[in-house]
Structures are given as C-alpha cells and as structure tokens.
C-alpha cells in the first residue's frame, strides 16, 4: 500500500504519510534526488503491451529497433528523439498495444501490432548437413536472428522478435511472411489505463500525447489529484489546455509537419520540464528538435500568451539566423490567491517546492515512519535531515536567505503526528533588465 500524502487543511489525516502545504508569504497587496524522469503514452505498432516499461537515453539510442520496432533515426521516432534531448529516463506505455500478433506457420510475433507484419521467416538447407536447416528471422530487409543447423522446430529458441511454433514442420522457404498483426484504436480508455498504471511510478514530467479535449482534461485532472491528494509532485505538459493550475504546463505552439496531429511539441516540452535542473530555468532555451514549429506571434500576442499562462516558443533573430526559443518558463496558473501568489506561476518555483516535497517524503517515509519516536530528540533528528536538504538547495542557489531557524518542528494534535513549518525564498533566473543611464 502506498503512503498517504498531499496537502492538508486540518490535522485529520488517516493514512501515515507526508502532508505538505506550500503557501505564499503574506504581503501587503538529505540528498537531493535527480531530475530528468519523464512519462508518456506512445503509438509505435510494436513493443510491450499493457505495461509501463522504462527506457533510458542509452537504451533508446542502442536498442530502439527491438524496443519500438523502428531504428533510432526513423521518422516515427522523431517525437521520442525530441523527448530524449532533455530527459534521461522515460516511462513509456503503448497506447496502441493490445491488438493482434502477426503470425505464420512457423512463428508468432513477440508483440501485437502492425509492425509484426514486416517480419518473415527464411528457411534454407544447412550447407554441412542437408537434413538440417538454417532459420533466419527477417524484419523488413534486415536479418535480426539466425539459428544454424536446426533439425526440428522444437529446437528453435525464441528471440526478440518471434516465438517459434514448436510443432511446425520445417521446410525450405525463401520467406514466409507473418501477417494479421493489428494495433488497437486509441481512445480515452487507453489513456486512462496508462494513467492508472503510472500512479505507482515517480517521475518529474508527464506528456499528454493527444489533441482531444477530453483527454487533455483527463491528464490535467489526474495531475491535480495526484499532486494535491497523494503528494506525488510532477507537472504535465498539455498542448492548448488552459488548466489554471501550477501542475499543468499549457503548450501554445502547434507543429506544422505534414501528417502531424499538431500537438507533438509536447514531446520536447515534457523532456524540458523533466530535465531542467532544480536551480535552473528553461527561459530562452532554444528548440533544437526536429518538428516544424509555428512560432509566428506578434509582440502583443506574446504578451497575451504570458498573461494567459501559456508556455510559448517564439522566434529570436541572432547571429544572422533565426532561432526558436522559450519565451518564459511558466505553467498555466493564472488565478492567484493570498496563499498561492504569482511566484507559483514560475516553473522554477514549482521545481524547487516539488524537490522539497518529494525528498522530504522519501526521508520521512523511508527513515522515520514506524521507526523513530515522536519525542523532542526524534523530531530534532527529522528537522536536521530537512535542514540538510535545504542547505543543498542553498548551495545550488535554488533558494536564498535560508537559515536553520526557518524550519520549525513540533508535535501535532495527536501522539503520532509531526508538524513542520518553514519559510523559503526561491531563486528564479533573471528575466527583465531595467537600466537607467544618466549621461552628463
């Protein structure tokens, strides 16, 4: 069972866990975990169905063909290449998985999907023993597996591409194609299945790989529920969805590539949100991806986008060329309150408070729940660990003006509760320069 977590109004929680509120300061008007983990649902026509699978940047570059059924350089891998420009690890889920496996007399594809129809089995007589066979598995034009000197199908060993039919009768064939492989039609049900399974994982950013308004709402509400009720701190990148919430990054731009759905910039933004360091901002980050991005906006349109909580890329002429860069590293929050001020609009702020929440939960859930007495000594030990985390953030210049006295700890309303109160000042990257020059 997962521990409880999220925000609190009163000290009335039932589940053990970490409950943290972040509020704006009143005004007159242990080791830091790594970032870079993303999650996204994909349509590939090949690969694991029904389960989330982890892919590292190295895996993607070296094993893309066997994992996704496409070479790293293939056109349909463009979105994932954009994602991995900034992410180091991705939890993937096949939205189009669960269809039919391609098959033939000799074998069935390892996975369901249309790419299985590109497989064939080639059987030739063995040159040293004409009563035996050499059996090759061919994907497209590439031989991906060869087994030499096989007397019967029962001797064949399944590979990354096919499971052989042990009862088949081997005979020479120039190529027996596997057929009948299908993908499922992706609907909101597949996205919901993905999100249900993803709840057990920890990650920094989630990409909504859909242009459907109902699916965008699903991802937005999922993020809000997990952040506020379960204490799982991440942000979700959604194209064209004004959620008015700090956990949702509303991507304004669309891509214009032939055959594209339009929302594919979400791949790159998801990687950026996941991979940007806790002490850094993505402001002015250059888009170095492969999609054609519509970034033609006037000054007034850009101002409107910022005021509307849109994460927008714009054109910037420099060094004789035109680049496309992030205008401002913000989320979709527009409506501010006394407890959630404008500082919460900055993604850099969210990175810092998410780091604090996630790492504090790891410390408390792993080292204190059920292990340390709730007395002065035990609480001071917890306070010391939390201070150490903040000192790491201070050293990274993610926060400033912090001292040990900014963290206060006390016993809660009952004997098993601990209350922590703290003040932090988040450091955000420079964005605006106002300069007055007096000339004599």
Describe this structure in words.
- This protein has 440 residues and is of the alpha/beta class.
- The protein has a domain at 101-177: Sandwich (Immunoglobulin-like).
- It has 8 helices and 22 strands.
- The strands form 7 sheets. The chain has a 7-stranded mixed sheet, sandwiched between helices. A 4-stranded antiparallel sheet has the order 10-9-8-12, with no helix packed on it.
- Strand 20 and strand 21 (418-422) form a beta hairpin.
- Helix 7 packs antiparallel against helix 8 (376-395).
- It is globular and about 90 Å long.
- It starts with a strand and ends in a 14-residue tail after the last strand.
Q: Which CATH class of the domain at 101-177 is shown? A: Mainly Beta
End-to-end CA span: 72 Å
SSE ordering = EEEEHHEEEEEEEEHEHEEHHEEEHHEEEE
- For the largest sheet, list the strands in their spatial order: 4-5-3-13-14-15-16
User: Could you say which structural class the secondary elements and strand pairing correspond to?
Assistant: alpha/beta
Tally of separate helices = 8
Give the % helix: 10-25%
The CATH architecture category of the domain at 101-177 equals Sandwich
β-strand number: 22
Give the averaged pLDDT, no decimals: 93
> Which of globular, elongated, flat, extended, rod-shaped describes the shape?
globular
Q: Specify the biggest β-sheet.
A: 7 strands, mixed
Which fold name corresponds to the CATH topology of the domain at 101-177?
Answer: Immunoglobulin-like
The proportion of strand residues reads 15-25%
Sequence stretches where pLDDT stays below 50 over 5 or more residues: none
* Computed CA radius of gyration, to the nearest angstrom: 26 Å
